């Protein structure tokens, strides 16, 4: 379907995601030739008027836009920004949307973007229904979708009273990253890798997303969410599905979801004994955080996929805030050669197994590291690496930031890179034991790699990071 002119209604417009990603992303899309005409109606709990919201957006763009906007571009975008406080009620929202539509002419569609925490989602859906903003509309739901199985099922039932499934886009922005999509290209467009993509050749997999970032002004959201719900049950496990899935019958949404859902169904229920929860020193002293908070700001865990391809291949996951480095890698460790003819002291195996590493930076990077001979006398081995980076081969401009890519897909009605309720519900089900009985958080120093227990968790393997 060619994209129609759109009114984007941004709920939670003045939140952290709004200023970091959504406003800059909408500015880029609106000013590019990827979308036809767009108008944006922001709404949130703040009592802004249009001018107040434009000031907010200007600051957000100054701070977070990848490329600074020219004055002319800013004027062009600012004229398309409107605001209604959520407290003004459904009629005021309906009026603002109708006014914005009037600027756009024929065939206008609406994209309601719910950048709100799970507990607020139902009220927004009710508001859209009361404002009669359901037809010609699609709705993008931010993660986490619910907070456990029961709440996800209830939220789905509630949304389905107002919107049909084909109108709903459950977003997980990691799937919009070029590098995540490159996993599919890499695995299924080549004959070279798929034959070794199984337990016979792969020893273990790591999905490791440490962040340097802390909470910024998200304490309230984070305190109620924690690293597992913020990152693992969403991004890390979605990425895991791309790594572990069988080849889909076609590159289309239903076929891809089917294979991802099979991975989720084969995931062994997460055993709290295979989980390390951590909390950085100083977390409890922050405003908005309870002084005896048990919210984890760090989590590392071992998962297993109970199917023929992956039996006995551990998948290690780690993510957390205020860690030593910001990285986003998926690392595939291959089995060692069955016998070594190289003398002790030659260096073979001393730098860990050979690896294929996907870097989920916005433009994807790939590297393959393996042992080779060190130049000079004798047979001394060392690890070499082959690198591939998209940016070297393509115009940097071609790279679409994850949110931009996914907003564009939602406008086009393409569900390929979105998650499904069935998949999300399976993941909540697999998480039940951990949610019911989480191990206590262990403290860790800021700028570290997490609590010490992470090493036992992966023994006899070792974390690939730091490089
Ligand atoms: C978000 C989480 O979904 O992803 C944040 O809520 C996290 O806590 C962010 O920092 C990481 O995304 P990215 O694209 O910067 O790796």
TrEMBL record:
It is an enzyme of class 1 (oxidoreductase). Its EC number is 1.1.1.49. Coiled coil: none annotated. One of its GO terms (biological process) is glucose metabolic process. It catalyses: D-glucose 6-phosphate + NADP(+) = 6-phospho-D-glucono-1,5-lactone + NADPH + H(+). SUPFAM superfamilies: Glyceraldehyde-3-phosphate dehydrogenase-like, C-terminal domain (SSF55347), NAD(P)-binding Rossmann-fold domains (SSF51735). One of its GO terms (molecular function) is glucose-6-phosphate dehydrogenase activity. InterPro entries: G6P_DH (IPR001282), G6P_DH_AS (IPR019796), G6P_DH_C (IPR022675), G6P_DH_NAD-bd (IPR022674), NAD(P)-bd_dom_sf (IPR036291). This is Glucose-6-phosphate 1-dehydrogenase. It comes from Luteipulveratus mongoliensis.
